[in-house]
Amino acid sequence: MIQTPCRQCRLRTLPLFLPHTAEEIALVQSLKRDELHLPGGHTLIDEGQTDAPLYTLLSGWAFRFKTLRDGRRQILNFLLAGDFIGVQQKMGDAAAHGVVTLTDSVFCVFQRDSLWQLHRQQPAMGFNITWLTAHEESLVDDTLLSVGRRTAEERVASLLIMLFKRAAALQADGGAQGVPFPLTQQHIADGLGLSLVHTNKTLRKLERRGLHRIEGGRLYLGDLQRLERLADLYGDGRQQPRPLI
Amino acid sequence: MIQTPCRQCRLRTLPLFLPHTAEEIALVQSLKRDELHLPGGHTLIDEGQTDAPLYTLLSGWAFRFKTLRDGRRQILNFLLAGDFIGVQQKMGDAAAHGVVTLTDSVFCVFQRDSLWQLHRQQPAMGFNITWLTAHEESLVDDTLLSVGRRTAEERVASLLIMLFKRAAALQADGGAQGVPFPLTQQHIADGLGLSLVHTNKTLRKLERRGLHRIEGGRLYLGDLQRLERLADLYGDGRQQPRPLI
DNA sequence: CGACGTGTTGATCTCTCTCAATTAGAGTGG
DNA sequence: CCACTCTAATTGAGAGAGATCAACACGTCG
């Protein structure tokens, strides 16, 4: 088990993340219990699990989801490097959603009371976590708007744009050569409240219009402007810097 | 303008809210800038507004929403007494959603850096706010599951149950005599991603089956068990105590 | 009393779902 | 090296849940 020291965390070098003091980093390091490597397609947290710790996604892709008894599944959002997992459940609560990996992933595992320790010992980090949590909610808000009020074409377009931008922000080249795209069409469907078949047809339609291309596990956007117009997405100054822990 | 002292806040007496120390309450009081009284149907925050302060809903009902350019509207969630408003936008950000009242409402207005002051001076409250924010996200998660994967009947049933439970928790009688229900069918439709007409037909269908009744601005549930089964809602230990600030 | 907001209902229409079948690629074992 | 199996993508056809269009009822209010 290779332990990455927080001080040398690859994520810290990205412009996306806030700088932190040595004390802050040392605190985070002291709370880190383990590093968990999972292959793609594996369960990190089961729906209803009661004892899930706090995680951070160090590398890879994953997603949060909920299901109905008969198996209908809704993906709540996709998780990329730097995202938090498990802030929701207070100690003792059942997880209200499951988490599954899309790719080989590495998670930092934190002890259960980390959230409290962080707040208590470094209020500035606590404040950032509140804000991060609120920001994650706003991602779900966006999806809810899509699923509730956009047509299939609009939904697919906006999802592609969102994922592209998030993934591009984690790359040095900013997505010039496309971004990794490990989702199957079933994941897209479950993320947008669509059926698999209709998702496929919609995707093909957009592709034939030259709006995007998915190939070899990578996503390339053809005409961002046209996609954004289709999705009714505002030019979008939303892409905020997200502090790491 | 009547200023309710936080120490005597009506909400504090409800079992729903956590106890707080005198220092905590004093701090909150010191950060409170104003009290805002709005009639029903009024805008508290415009979509895209950049300078919204932090609010707390002291009494009344409101909702958060987003719209597309052509006017399609999605209600993200309904706000009841005790809810926070505006944690999302960091200072300087544009509000990602609008907020409008459903009934005459009273808001506590807090200065912009309150969130930070709370974290800095009372980390325990900061921690609670993080958790509250995460909890609010889980409400949106629930709605997303509904809108993405439930049929119209299931959606309506689950919304009625959710609102009933939330409203009942704010009442002394726990909803035995029904709960206030200030939504129009258009609000329900916009909260569930349905059309107005179909919402009406679905509502009538459930009503004819004796599952609920809306009358004189109050909601009465006929058969909670049957409604929950219809909505595919789990018995639900979810109703957590929510700390007030 | 007319205008307006809200609720109700019937009649289409259509977007999306479901069912079914086919193709392609990756992996496995003989 | 080749059947065999599995998963993912693709496409057509028919069905259906929910949208849209249109009318009307009812209460409130200026």
Structure overview:
The structure is a homodimer of 245-residue chains. In chain A, the strands form three sheets. Chain A has a four-stranded antiparallel sheet with strand order 1-8-3-6. Chain A starts with 21 loop residues before the first helix and ends in a 14-residue tail after the last helix. Chain A is an alpha+beta fold. The first copy, chain A, has two domains: 6-140, Jelly Rolls; 143-231, Arc Repressor Mutant, subunit A (Orthogonal Bundle). The longest helix of chain A has 27 residues, at 123-149. Chain A is built from seven helices and eleven strands. Mean pLDDT of chain A is 90; it is low at 235-245. The interface between A and B is large, with 50 and 50 residues. Chain B binds a DNA duplex (30 and 30 nucleotides) through helix 6.
Give me a quick take on this structure.
The structure is a homodimer of 245-residue chains. Chain A is built from seven helices and eleven strands.
Layout: helices, strands, pairs:
2 copies of one chain form a homodimer.
Chain A: H1 22-31, E1 32-38, E2 43-45, E3 54-59, E4 62-67, E5 73-79, E6 84-85, E7 98-101, E8 105-110, H2 114-121, H3 123-149, H4 152-168, E9 179-180, H5 185-192, H6 196-208, E10 212-215, E11 218-221, H7 224-231
Antiparallel strand pairs in A: 1-8, 2-7, 3-6, 3-8, 4-5, 4-7, 9-11, 10-11
Helix pairs in contact in A: 2-3, 4-6, 4-7, 5-6
Chain B binds a DNA duplex (30 and 30 nucleotides) through helix 6.
